[in-house]
Amino acid sequence: MSLVEHFGAEHARLAAQLPGAGHPAVDSVRGAALARFRSQGLPQTRLEDWKYTSLAGLEHKPLPVAASAGSLTAGQLAAQAALPQAVHRLVFIDGHFAPEHSFHQLPAGALAASLAARLAAAPQDGLPADDPAASALSALNLAFSADGLELEVAAGVVVEQPILLLWVGSQPEHSTFPALRVRLGQGARACLVEQHLSLHAGTAVNTAVARISLAGQAELQHIKVQAEGPRVVHLSDCAVELAAGARLRSLVLALGGQLGREDLRIALQGRNAAAELDGLYLARGRRHLDHHTTVVHASPDCSSRQDYRGIIDDAARAVFNGRVVVARDAQHTDAQQTNANLLLSDAAEIDTKPQLEIFADDVRCSHGATVGQLDAAELFYLRSRGLDEAQARTLVTFAFAARCLAPVPAGTPLHDGLRRLLLAALPGGEQLENLTP
């Protein structure tokens, strides 16, 4: 049985159990999404955007869709969460909302709701239409939309404390399809920390989709941490639309998984919109991590900045493709893009491809990519100050990686939590806990 046939059979098995099933507004969207996946199938390496990343391995072991949530303890969450003492925490286990582990004190005008609960209460509101610009994996996620987070912040409302969203995989040998939808009203502000983690060392596939809309003057800091197990496949598509004067600060940390693909698509649709994109991918062993960013400047006077960093060790491979498109009428665009990579072994590999597609004539755009090794002079200096070779290598590597945390204020619980996760992901990082500020 092919993977397309497998998911067709899984959909037939689970269709009646999905929230909102039986209502035409819901069934039609799911049916159309499944039809697109059946028509297009998995992305193939013959496609330019997928030439370095093969999903053929998924065909060999189709995994059933997780129809219910497993269990976990509060201690397991606290040990791995980026914000152990979060004021607002929303937990989904195997793609399903876990109210017993969730709590928040959101201000009036801010609403965090389960997609399943909303569909059960008002199925006539339906699901958002499939996005044909996204890969067929996005359509597959929509076809199996069982649960997810819907976050709405009304105009002028400010959520002072970060919102921690935990996607937890507790059952190996399953596929999950988390969905995230965020809408910020005029002038609203929020920080969302989205963390994917697994409590098992088995095989799993996590196909995640996020759709974010920022109204005029709204500000969102979106931090995503992928820290899943060594045999997990993580496939993600995130699309963000920014109206006039809106601002997005994005940070993506890819620290785990066996194969990871992150598609981040930004549309600057209103004048003076701005996007700051930072990212770090850490690939060890035989991991394969692929990051694709697309920033479309559709309006004048917008700005974007990208700074993605990669650390590749052992026989791992990483891919970065950063694409900036400046539309014909998007005059006075300011777009900067950099990709820096550190190779720690002779067998490590990076494929980097920065792209600029400019159709306007009054712009300031730049891009660049670097690939290098650890600086011998820096290592010698640290060795001369009493560190052994392993500590020196780890400290220089951490200094290279930690620059991605600059947008998060130092000394805050969020910065400390992200720093802790980063150190834990680096070989020997635990030994540097007392050596790094």
Overview features:
437 residues, alpha/beta, 2 domains, 10-stranded mixed β-sheet, 9 helices, 20 strands
Large-scale geometry = globular
Strand/helix succession: HHHHEEEHHEEEEEEEEEEEEEEEEEHHH
Radius of gyration: 21 Å
% residues in beta strands: 35-45%
- How many runs of DSSP E, i.e. beta strands? 20
Mean pLDDT: 94
Poorly predicted residue ranges: none
Class of secondary structure makeup: alpha/beta
Query: If helices are DSSP runs of H or I spanning 4 or more residues, what is the number of helices?
Result: 9
The total domain count is: 2
Distance, first to last CA? 53 Å
Strand order of the largest sheet: 2-1-5-8-10-12-14-16-18-20
Layout of strands and helices, then pairs:
Layout: H1 3-14, H2 24-40, H3 57-60, H4 74-80, E1 88-93, E2 96-97, E3 110-114, H5 115-121, H6 136-143, E4 148-153, E5 163-169, E6 174-176, E7 179-184, E8 189-198, E9 204-214, E10 219-227, E11 232-242, E12 247-254, E13 259-268, E14 274-283, E15 288-297, E16 303-312, E17 317-326, E18 334-343, E19 349-358, E20 364-372, H7 376-384, H8 389-402, H9 413-425
Parallel strand pairs: 1-5, 4-7, 5-8, 6-9, 7-9, 8-10, 9-11, 10-12, 11-13, 12-14, 13-15, 14-16, 15-17, 16-18, 17-19, 18-20
Antiparallel strand pairs: 1-2, 3-4
